[in-house]
């Protein structure tokens, strides 16, 4: 797998769209928007041909600049609140429909169904209408790579420590049933959110807008606000948790871009390939869903 420099024209265009969206959400002041946009585009231009560069890495460098210039620490706040409300409704409706089928299902079938349900949540995206998720829930995902059985086998004995890296704010309602199930069958489950706002990812501050029963799932902060995970910028507590986990699952393309070249066999990535560069590098068709163990797919 390879999604690194030089940055493709598709990735650059996507970053430019993200910059435009972010500055628009960050302020109504046209002058500040233009200043922030210019500075963010300079960062893209400076970094795009650097070694080992991904779109996630570049975005993590221009978001703080936009926030500072526009004087807005969380440009996506209102959008996340709306995404949370919409996703909660869709997830609750879907779970109700699944309830009877899973009530007496074998453990492995329940595991697979709830893992797939979590995966569906990655259909959320800041360039999409959240209601599109409704259609995806009804139709079911096209999973091109499914190594869920490998995850299940790694969790065959109770007492494993599972670290789950969250993604978009609304996805939590799709992730939580799976995570609570893992806790119910005897595992220690940690759900990691961003330590500071970045894009529409779920962060520590967003938790005040979410009213759920976490059960035995422990919510932790990464201690940083990067797209995906840059472990060197995470808190000491989080790095210790990461190092001690038996299984690590990262949701979304940001985690694919930052963890996709890992040699760590504990790491699994769950995402929808929403753009051609990610689809091509992961070996699937556009908009396919993926559950992969990247360490065993290195080329």
UniProtKB/TrEMBL annotation:
SUPFAM superfamilies in the cross-refs: AF1104-like (SSF111321)
Pfam families hit by this protein: ARMT1-like_dom
Annotated Damage-control phosphatase ARMT1-like metal-binding domain residues: 11-285
InterPro entries: ARMT-1-like_metal-bd_sf, ARMT1-like_metal-bd, PH1575-like
Identification of the protein by name: Damage-control phosphatase ARMT1-like metal-binding domain-containing protein
């Amino acid at each position: 797998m390879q999604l690194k420099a030089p940055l493709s024209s598709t990735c650059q265009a996507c970053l430019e769209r993200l910059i435009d969206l972010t500055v628009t959400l960050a302020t109504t002041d046209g002058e500040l928007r233009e200043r922030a946009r210019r500075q963010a585009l300079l960062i893209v231009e400076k970094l795009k041909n650097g070694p080992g560069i991904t779109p996630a890495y570049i975005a993590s460098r221009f978001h703080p600049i936009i926030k500072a210039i526009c004087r807005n620490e969380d440009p996506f706040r209102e959008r996340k609140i709306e995404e949370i409300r919409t996703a909660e409704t869709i997830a609750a409706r879907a779970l109700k429909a699944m309830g009877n089928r899973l009530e007496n299902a074998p453990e492995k079938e329940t595991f697979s169904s709830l893992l797939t349900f979590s995966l569906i949540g990655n259909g959320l995206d800041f360039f999409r209408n959240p209601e599109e998720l409704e259609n995806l829930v009804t139709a079911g995902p096209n999973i091109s790579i499914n190594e869920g059985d490998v995850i299940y086998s790694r969790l065959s004995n109770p007492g494993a420590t599972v670290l789950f890296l969250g993604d978009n704010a609304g996805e939590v309602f799709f992730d939580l049933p799976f995570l609570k199930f893992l806790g119910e069958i005897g595992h220690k489950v940690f759900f990691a959110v961003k330590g500071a706002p970045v894009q529409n990812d779920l962060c520590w501050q967003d938790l005040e807008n979410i009213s759920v029963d976490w059960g035995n799932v422990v919510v932790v902060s990464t201690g940083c606000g990067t797209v995906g995970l840059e472990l060197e910028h995470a808190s000491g507590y989080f790095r210790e948790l990461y190092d001690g986990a038996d299984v690590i699952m990262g949701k979304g393309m940001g985690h694919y871009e930052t963890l996709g070249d890992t040699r760590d066999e504990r790491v699994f990535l769950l995402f929808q390939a929403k753009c051609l560069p990610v689809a091509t590098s992961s070996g699937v068709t556009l908009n396919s869903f993926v559950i992969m163990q990247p360490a065993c797919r290195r080329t």
